[in-house]
Structure formats: C-alpha cells, structure tokens
C-alpha cells in the first residue's frame, strides 16, 4: 500500500514535467508580449513529432542520440517560434489583443494540417529512452526509469530559468518588459529583439515539453488543443506570469490526476476542474499570481452606444423583409445555409452580449451552444421528448451550465477569465467525448427528428427565424434597459460602479447566464436543423468560430456579430469540402488579421480617421 | 561636428491620437546646457509634445532635430540611444524589480559628448537610493520613486533629458529636493526640457519658458519676462 | 452633528503599519482636509472609510451606524458619495446617462430588462447637471470631455445618491490652478447648502488653506496635527515634515 502511494506520487511528479514546461513557456511569452499564444500547444505537438523523426535518424537506439534528438527538437521548435514571431506577430503588436489571439489560432489550424501532411493521420508511438527503458523497484512497486529522469528535469529547468531571469541582464530586461514594455523601449532597449528572444525561449520550453513526453505519450494530432487547455489550467492555478507558480500548479494537477486514477479513473478531468475551482475561490489570481490590470483584453476606450438611427431601422426592416420572402425565391441549399447562418448569428450575438457590453471575453462559448444541443438531443433520444419541449429545455440546460461555470468566471477578469472559460469548455467537451454510454462519444447522437408539423424545411426555417429573431431582439432590449447599463457600468469603470452601489459581480453573472441561455437556444435549434450532434459542437474550434464572427463583424457595434456570422459561415461552407481546409481557413484568418489589424468593422473607422486627419492638416496648411 | 546646432530643435510638428489632433505646428528649441520649461494646464499637450520628441507618439509632419540629426519617425529606443533621456509623468518604474535592477535596465554605454554616470555616482547624488538598493521599487514612497525614475534615465548617459511634470503629486518638501536635483544636473552640463503646471516650481529651475495651450505654443520668452508679464500669467496660467 | 466618526483605525501590510491608530470626526456641512506626505497613510485610511480595505482594528461609524468592513457598494447605499483622484466615469455613456445610471442604482431599479433606461430619471439627472454647470453638455460622451468638465460630472454623480458624506480623493489633481479654485468653491457651496459632510485629501495647499474648515495631518500612519488651517500652517512639526520652507510662498 505504502509502495503504491509512493510510486503513484512519483508518477504524478513525472507527468507534471511536460505540463510545467509548456505552461512556463506560455506564461513567459504572455508576460512580455501580452499575447495569449493559442499556438503554444501546436509548438508542443511539433516538439513531439520532430523529436520522433529525429530519434528515428540520429544514432537511433543510443542514449546519446535520444537526448540530442530531444534538445534538437526543442531548438527547431524554438526557431519555428521565432519565424512565427517575426513573420506574423511582429506586424500586429499594436492590434487589439483579441486579434493577436485570432492570428495565433490561425497558426493552430495551419500547423494541424501541416502536421497531418508531414506525419500522416496515424498516432505515433514514441521510442523508449535508451538506457532508461527498464523500471526500478520501489517498496515492491515498479516505476519506469524514465519517470525518474522526468522528475529531475522540472526542478532543474526551474532553477535554470530562475538564474536566467535574476542573474542575467537579459532576464532583468525581460522582467522589466513584463511590467511595462513601452518604458523599456523608452530607456533605449529594442523591443522587437526582446520579443523575439522571449518567443525563442517560450517556444523552446514548449518544444522541450512535447519532446520529453514522447516516450510516454507518443505524438498525435489531438495533443495541441488538449495540452493547451491543460496549460491554461496550470497557468491560471499557478498565477499568470509566475514561473514558480506554474511549477507548483503543474505538480498539484499532476498529483491529483495520478491519485484520481487510482480511485476513479473517469474522475481525472473533474478533479482537475475541482482543483482549479477551489484554488480560484481561495486565491482568485492563482497560487502565486497577482491581480492584473482592470480592463479586459482588446477593450480600449468604448464609444457611445446609441439606439438605432431611423436609417438603421429601415435597413433592419429591409433585411427582415428579405429573410421573410427568402423561401419563395431561394433554392433548398440556400435555405439550409441561411438556417445555419441565422442560428450561428444568435450564437455570435450571445457571445457579443458578454464580450461587448459585458467586457468579458470568453474563449469557451461553444460550451453553452453544445450544452443546449446535447441537452435537447439527449432528451429526444433517451426520453423521447417532443421537439417543442426539447427546444425549451435547451436554454435551461445551457443556462444552468452558464450559472455554474459563470459563478467562477466572474470572479476573475481579463485574460484569466478568458482562460477559465476555455478550461470549462474543454471539460464539458471531454465529458461528452469520453462518456460514450450516455453521449455516444465521438459517434455523436443521431436520428433526432423534428415534430411532423415542423418537418418541412420552410416551416422550420420560419421557426428558426422567429426564435432567433426574438432572442436577438430581447438581448438588444436588455442592453438598452437598466440591466444593460448596470453591466456596462461594471465594464467601463468597476471603481465607479462599486461606488454607486452596483453589485458588479452579480450583474456579470446574470449577463453570463443570459448569454449562456441564448447560446443554448441556438444549440437546440442547431440539433434539429441537422438531426444529429457531435462533440465538435462544443470544441475549442467552435468557440473560436464565435470569436472570429464577433471580431470580424466588430465588437463595438450590435449588428457586427450578425454580419460576422453570415460572412464566416458562408466562407466555411465554401471551403469545408477541401481536404486541407484547416490550412486554408487558418491562412485566411492570419491574412485577414495582418491586412486589417483593427478588424473588418474597423476598416471604415480607419478610413474615416485618415480623411479627418487629411482635412485637419489641410485646413491648418491653408491658414 | 554638430557643435553649432542647438541641443533640440522642434519645428512645426503635429501629432494625433487616433483622429483627435493634439499638437498644431508646434516649434520649440532647447540650447546646450539650458533648462527650458513647457508650461500649460492639463490636456494642453505637454505630455504629447514630450512623447512626440522621444518617439512614443509619431509626429505627422514637421521635424525634430536632436544635436543636428533628424529623429522624427525613429523608434524610441534608437532616439534614446543617441543620448536623449525621457522621464515619464507617471514615473513608470518597474515595481517588481529592485532599485539596482531598475538602474540596470536604464544602463547604456558611455558617450563622449555627455556626462557619464555610474551606479556609484548616482548613489552619491541620491543617497536615499543607496540605502535601498535591494528593495523592490514598488515598496518605496512616491518621492523616492520619482528620484529612482530620474536616476534610471541618467544611467543611459543622456545629454538631454525630458522631464514630464516632475513635481506632480509630490509633497512640498520633496518638490524642493527635486528642484535642487535639477539644478545639480544642469550644473553638470545636462540640457533639460521639462513640462510643468506648477509655476512656482518652474520658476525655481528654468531659464526659459514656453506656454502651450490647446496644442499650440502661445508665448515664449525668458523666465524673467514671464515673471513681469502679468497679462500672460493671468491669461494662460491663472496663478 | 457628527456624520463620520473614525475611532482608532489600524491597518498593516506585511509588517508595515500603514495606519497606526487614527481617530477623527467630520460634522454636517463641514469640509475636512486630510494632508500629509506620500506614504503617510492617506490612501490607506481613505480606502478603509469607503470599504475598499478592511481595517485590522478600530471602527468607522456613519451617522452612528457601524460601517466598519462593509464593501464599497453597501457603504455607498448608506449615503456616501465619492470622487476619485483620476476621474472614474462610464465612457460608453453620455454625461446624462452617467448620472441617470447612478439614480437608477440609487432607486434600486437596475434589474429592469425591457424599458429603455434613457427615459428614466432624466429630469432629476438634468437638475443635478444644471447645478454643476454641465447641463449643456448632457448628451456628449464622457470620453470626449475636458478634464475639468469630467470632474464636474463626477461631482454630479457623487451627489446623485443623495449622500450625507462625500469622500473626495485629491479632487483637484491634474487641474489647472484656476479650475481648482472654481471646482472647490462649487463643491463647498453645494455641500453647505445640502449640509453634506466632506472629507478630502489634497496636495495643493492653496486649495486646502482656502476651502477647508478644518485640517488633519498624517505622517507615518499617525495623526500629527489637527485644527484650523491657520493652526496647522503655523505648526512647527507640520512645516518640518510636510510643508517645507516654501510654506510662506503658498
């Protein structure tokens, strides 16, 4: 018994190693560049793949060859990181933070297809580390030798990082830049060079993390998003920007998982979630973190929010008129696509509701879409619930999810909150993905039929139009009602809102609930439009779809998300038949961000600024 | 080589934040070894002027010449490396770093044409800082932070420093110390351009004044001229 | 009558006593200035009164009611208005909407989900803006106002919840000397006519000595002097620790 506990403890320490490496890299990069590098999981994945290829070639089978391969893989990944930084991020450091995030997600998509093309779709088994391929006996239990190597690596890396940051000039500059990078520039340091070197170190750590776990976990195409979610949890638990915090958090998570496996193997994810929840309630900024600035990422000075002008009302009326007569003029496939667009417009509008007026950026809004979808689908398949009832239940299920997740999320702000939403979404996804008996896992739930009266595509189209129209209009009313003012007050100035007696946290929570329930309506309708549901509907890419829609349309207008949803859904429909569509989509996102760093919605403002500036200078010159 | 050129010559610059125009054809100059002050109320464009000079705001149109070299449009780190130091209004010290580390961030190679500073020389000038070398800068008082901020900029061995409202938010006793420090720097050959709304402080340290309002220079002249011109003081400064 | 009663307040941060036993009171219609060097404990003390910090020891009473350790929103609801060193307003709302939101909050109407807020309490908001001289700019965005005007809006917002006590943290910081006097004169006028007690911190000695009825001086977390502006100005310790030699010039 004692032996088992000791060995399990050591296993936990070993599994913490790669988690610590990737989280430390993520934390360092965020600290200096303020970029939440979604592609950090991709760098980790590349580390695993590249290490695999190298170990096959470089003095295969020797201990010397293995460790050289691991270090070389990390170095190659570091260079890839540098290339990404120089070619892409360097051009968009002045863009709103959310656009930078989108660009890194574009990298995720591109890397996914590149890895598929180079290494193929089959999971690769990692080689055993030569010289460390047997197990040692500890109190009658066996522990792989390689685990001992992993246990040693983390504290060594932690120590080296500490020396790097406290005993070198570069480290002092990085710590200074973490606090105020502009000021470091104003003291004569070239920020561009500093950022690139930081990216090198961060990417190196991610690559190293991926490479050293190769003998244990191998390499596959799913680890990028799985590991980034885990890394977010570690960073949030440890405290943003604290490397020692990441170290402690990685150990905490590693140990909890190691022991949870003993007690109840299915509970590992829930345990991770509970640990995070407990830590955040006790210490909202993580174990060793400190509060960050008040504002949410990408939310600069907010413009006035005004009710629609007569002209805008006219435009809305025209659009609604067009949608109403669409079945008379459009073909079937157009109608099907429009149904999807309208549903996703509601999804995007609900995300906008918390992001825009609420100022809370969610990386995991698909969770509520998916909860609505699965809620309706499970009622239909297991209890034979009629469509009408299932559709009504969808927002309730999603709303309950939002109520629980939101309770934790509204305690945080900015990027912490965003990471936490993503972690929750990933947990919801994992439950659906792994609970095969109940949710059908990867196979999804099929054969969900509409009630006979709504079976006709045109009738269903009007049902979708009515439901989504009412929901979007209701959110609009709320934004201009006292409730919306209270939510916006908390976003604009928490200090002032507090001082006039507004309970900001409560209003944020309610906004979270509304947004979740609305996304649930969209999810429910989606199930009945497709007749099936798969875990993809609550995956990270679906959440990012929502972000793309909102950001492309413009966060600062209420109509933005609707047009963003239309444009994006159409684009995705066009390219999804191609084999390497992720590559194309990722490339498109990166291209759009590079071309329009202020968002498509910002183009007009940019032109306007240019004109005004010209005019202003012209008038002066004419005097 | 550029001995004849003034230390700083700003000619006809305009600056924008987004589409809001902040500066209008603004010109000013600072001679070698001179202390010039930019006086004006909040929002007049003082900080923007200094930021436009050091490159934190990119001026559109006009020219900024530092010791005869055109610097408008250069990134801040290149401007600073030429010997132009900047002390921001909000101090912006690195609170997580120790006093010694803060100074290290500002360190640059010595320059032939500017007074050379070292940590020891700065500790002689600011004895308070010497006593708290290892202390995180965030745990110092406002006045100490302001001194650290000046010292940090001096580590770059500048020949000209821009001081944005050095007396703001400081207790009267500390303001007197600050004035003494500026006098000391001037006596060592540094040129200084500061922005202020505190006329009493400006009077203690400067040779020449510019009055800025709504992004335009409205008046310029020696400190003595300003002293005797009640009309100007009444109109722009309201003492 | 005493509106605010502070007794023996203590607060430490990691071994440093920021506030070490401070007691004072503010009466109805009185303007009390709190001055002292940076790091003397002014902000800490202020933040314990408005609820942002919980004291380690001592008590705060508002009109005889114990408000020690209550969160800011509850303190606000009991009748405390605040202005900030750096103005805090709602940038995505107009001037009038800023005041209206405060009025809606004051009347516990924030849960409304349907009726547009723009029509609620509009008249009351306009009356307040009229009083501070901002009625003409009622429909402009707060984000585009001049700093001095923003300070007036903040004053209107602080008055909107009908406070018995106004806490002003460096009310004139960042303003030109002329505007400072105007703003404080306006504040004094309004608070006297409504019998509101005012506690403010300030670095500008002109403002303090012109407008305060009484002054308290903090140093290293302790009260070192208390009295009329004349008494405090003449106090030798205060001159030594804070005012300096140039006190005559001010």
Structure, described:
Chain A has 623 residues and is an all-alpha fold. Chain A has helices at 2-33, 40-57, 63-87, 97-119, 145-167, 169-185, 191-212, 214-217, 223-238, 243-263, 268-282, 310-329, 332-355, 366-383, 387-409, 414-434, 436-439, 457-480, 482-492, 494-499, 504-530, 540-553, 560-575, 581-595, 600-622; strands at residues 135-138, 141-144. In chain A, strands 1-2 form a two-stranded antiparallel ribbon. With 239 residues, chain B is of the alpha/beta class. In chain B, 36% of the residues lie in helices and 25% in strands. Chain B is built from 10 helices and 10 strands. Chain B has helices at residues 46-54, 76-81, 99-106, 119-125, 127-131, 142-154, 172-187, 199-205, 223-228, 230-237, and strands spanning 8-17, 20-30, 35-39, 63-66, 69-70, 84-87, 160-164, 191-196, 208-213, 216-222. In chain B, the strands form 2 sheets. A 6-stranded mixed sheet of chain B has the order 6-7-8-3-9-10, sandwiched between helices. In chain B, helix 7 (172-187) links the parallel strand 7 and strand 8 (191-196). In chain B, helix 3 packs parallel to helix 6 (142-154). Chain B is globular. Chain C has a domain at 1-70 and 203-250: Rossmann fold (3-Layer(aba) Sandwich). Chains in contact: A-B, A-C, B-C. At the A-B interface, helix 6 and helix 25 of A face strand 2, helix 2 and helix 3 of B.
Question: Outline of this structure?
Answer:
Chain A is mostly helical and 623 residues long. Chain A has helices spanning 2-33, 40-57, 63-87, 97-119, 145-167, 169-185, 191-212, 214-217, 223-238, 243-263, 268-282, 310-329, 332-355, 366-383, 387-409, 414-434, 436-439, 457-480, 482-492, 494-499, 504-530, 540-553, 560-575, 581-595, 600-622, and strands at residues 135-138, 141-144.
SSE blueprint and pairings:
The complex is a heterotrimer of chains A (623), B (239) and C (250).
Chain A: H1 2-33, H2 40-57, H3 63-87, H4 97-119, E1 135-138, E2 141-144, H5 145-167, H6 169-185, H7 191-212, H8 214-217, H9 223-238, H10 243-263, H11 268-282, H12 310-329, H13 332-355, H14 366-383, H15 387-409, H16 414-434, H17 436-439, H18 457-480, H19 482-492, H20 494-499, H21 504-530, H22 540-553, H23 560-575, H24 581-595, H25 600-622
Antiparallel strand pairs in A: 1-2
Chain B: E1 8-17, E2 20-30, E3 35-39, H1 46-54, E4 63-66, E5 69-70, H2 76-81, E6 84-87, H3 99-106, H4 119-125, H5 127-131, H6 142-154, E7 160-164, H7 172-187, E8 191-196, H8 199-205, E9 208-213, E10 216-222, H9 223-228, H10 230-237
Parallel strand pairs in B: 3-8, 3-9, 6-7, 7-8
Antiparallel strand pairs in B: 1-2, 1-4, 4-5, 9-10
Helix pairs in contact in B: 3-6
Chain C: E1 2-13, E2 16-27, E3 31-35, H1 42-49, E4 57-62, E5 65-66, H2 72-77, E6 80-83, H3 95-106, H4 122-132, H5 147-160, E7 165-169, H6 177-193, E8 197-201, H7 205-211, E9 214-219, E10 222-227, H8 229-234, H9 236-243
Helix pairs in contact in C: 3-4, 3-5, 4-5, 6-7
